[in-house]
Amino acid sequence: MIEQACQEMEARGIKVKRTSSLWETEPMYVLDQDRFVNGACEVETELEALPLLDQLQDIEKSMGRKKLIDKGPRNIDLDVLLYGDEKVDHERLTVPHIGIPEREFVLRPLAELIPTKAIYASKPWKLVQDFLNDLPPSSDPLSTLTPISSTVQSLNALKADRKTQVMAILNITPDSFSDGGVHTPDSLRDSVLTFIRGGATMIDIGGQSSSPGTPDISADEEISRVLPAIELIRSLPEAQDVAISVDTYRAPVAEAAAQAGADIINDISAGQLDPNMLSTMARLGKTVCLMHMRGNPGTMSKLNDYPEGLIPTIAKELLERVAEAEAAGIRKWRIILDPGLGFAKVGEQNLHILRHFDELRNWPGLQGFPWLLGSSRKSFIGKVTGVPKPMDRIFGTATTVAAAVQGGADIVRVHDVVEMGQVVKMADAIWRY
């Protein structure tokens, strides 16, 4: 409903420039109703405040809102919180909105967008962030909400007791570094069912290997590999609650996969390897995963110098990727982040990320995003454990998965789903309560 309302605003010439995260809260005032989802957006419009309100209320009406009980259940509620620096005192509209100071579900999204803006001209020294800091601690802390699909549970990156999602790797490639050629058309159904029985809640389908030295294939060939797997999963009753992710950095592949039923676009380049990728993601409206990488799979291993510090640099470069995504029209609440273990990081650098992952998650501007970590079978594990074959690195991978859960990962991307499903259950029992 919120995304539909944003589309309706755009269609009426009210340009949505930036959005906050979505925040899930218990209802206020009328308590006997479902939980609420709240967000704020910055818009650009030529409308004055009251004509803007008219348009917003007409959007509510067109979306079927019926106001039966004041502050009671409703499918959509659009308010004007601020209108530049103007003050409006009209029987139909008060700006700044009268409820801002007392409502955490308003102040949190506002603080993401304009933390250093004064709300009231009479108190220019008191900023949005100050009003948020003045609120008493909530008995049930608010969490961001990242939607996946109508049949898959949303991610709540700030809930202490959230369950870690297990993303199974399904490479439909002959040349992936550890499972190339394993998943054939004949074995695909059994592989998918094994993943689901092992606890996978997401399946990440890849048709182009990102291993260094692997030759590029055409977008058409990548699509021909990926689409049959998506169609198979969508045909299985057992997979109706499983999210499908497509692992691609090509816009045509992302589009074809989304049309076939993919829920997530997982781009290792965060839109850097295809100039059309970010705009395509925005138009498709799917949840996206933006990974930190430098260069391309062929050059990334040489681009691992971080003179200003690994965590600060990853944070800075991911903030740039997020800003580019938002500028292209991707909603903030549709973004998952990935620090990119093994991508432009070598050896000890990957261990450093795992040790300091909570610092990265809490970096200013990155708080509240859900995070995906993909350490499975990677070479840095082999270097530490002395295990040369990627398929034999199960125990080393298990340790990195436990570390990822402790550090706050929302999704772990793994090859050995049955084993890592057990690791995640145990790690969740220890750290997610």
TrEMBL record:
It catalyses: 6-hydroxymethyl-7,8-dihydropterin + ATP = (7,8-dihydropterin-6-yl)methyl diphosphate + AMP + H(+); 7,8-dihydroneopterin = 6-hydroxymethyl-7,8-dihydropterin + glycolaldehyde; (7,8-dihydropterin-6-yl)methyl diphosphate + 4-aminobenzoate = 7,8-dihydropteroate + diphosphate. Residues 164-425 form the Pterin-binding domain. Pathway: Cofactor biosynthesis; tetrahydrofolate biosynthesis; 2-amino-4-hydroxy-6-hydroxymethyl-7,8-dihydropteridine diphosphate from 7,8-dihydroneopterin triphosphate: step 3/4; Cofactor biosynthesis; tetrahydrofolate biosynthesis; 2-amino-4-hydroxy-6-hydroxymethyl-7,8-dihydropteridine diphosphate from 7,8-dihydroneopterin triphosphate: step 4/4; Cofactor biosynthesis; tetrahydrofolate biosynthesis; 7,8-dihydrofolate from 2-amino-4-hydroxy-6-hydroxymethyl-7,8-dihydropteridine diphosphate and 4-aminobenzoate: step 1/2. The keyword Glycoprotein does not apply. One of its GO terms (biological process) is folic acid biosynthetic process. SUPFAM superfamilies: 6-hydroxymethyl-7,8-dihydropterin pyrophosphokinase, HPPK, Dihydropteroate synthetase-like. GO terms for cellular component: mitochondrial envelope. Its EC number is 2.5.1.15, 2.7.6.3, 4.1.2.25. GO terms for molecular function: 2-amino-4-hydroxy-6-hydroxymethyldihydropteridine diphosphokinase activity; ATP binding; dihydroneopterin aldolase activity; dihydropteroate synthase activity; kinase activity; metal ion binding. CDD domains: DHPS, HPPK. NCBIfam families: DHPS, folK. PANTHER family: FOLATE SYNTHESIS PROTEINS, FOLIC ACID SYNTHESIS PROTEIN FOL1. This is Folic acid synthesis protein FOL1. Catalyzes three sequential steps of tetrahydrofolate biosynthesis. It comes from Neoarthrinium moseri. Its cofactor is Mg(2+). It comes from the Eukaryota. Keywords: ATP-binding, Folate biosynthesis, Kinase, Magnesium, Metal-binding, Multifunctional enzyme, Nucleotide-binding, Transferase. In the N-terminal section; belongs to the DHNA family.
